[in-house]
Amino acid sequence: MIFFILPLMIPVVFHGLRSNETLLKMTDPKPITYTYHAREMDVQAREKAIEQLKVKTRTGEIDNG
């Protein structure tokens, strides 16, 4: 029970914890880069899906706004 209450009560008792510049610093996360290799079949499937979406948008089946 103390485990849940203590983090809430400490800043109330010690007001400086919420505004201390040193404690407010965050680390810069390392960027994550993903590399994908698309096969010809993947490209064709995506082009077909885009074309179908364009048709549905033109015919009013999908609202583009």
Distance between the termini: 50 Å
Report strand %: under 5%
Radius of gyration: 26 Å
Largest sheet geometry:
none
Q: Figure out the total of helices.
A: 3
Characterization of the model:
- The chain has 65 residues and is mostly helical.
- Helix content is 55%, strand content 0%.
- The radius of gyration is 26 Å and the shape is elongated.
- The chain has helices at residues 2-13, 21-24, 40-59.
- It has a domain at 32-65.
- The mean pLDDT is 87.
List keywords for this structure.
65 residues; mainly alpha; 3 helices
Short description:
The protein has 65 residues and is mainly alpha-helical. Helices cover 55% and strands 0% of the residues. It is elongated and about 60 Å long.
Task: Give the secondary structure arrangement, pairings included.
Elements: H1 2-13, H2 21-24, H3 40-59
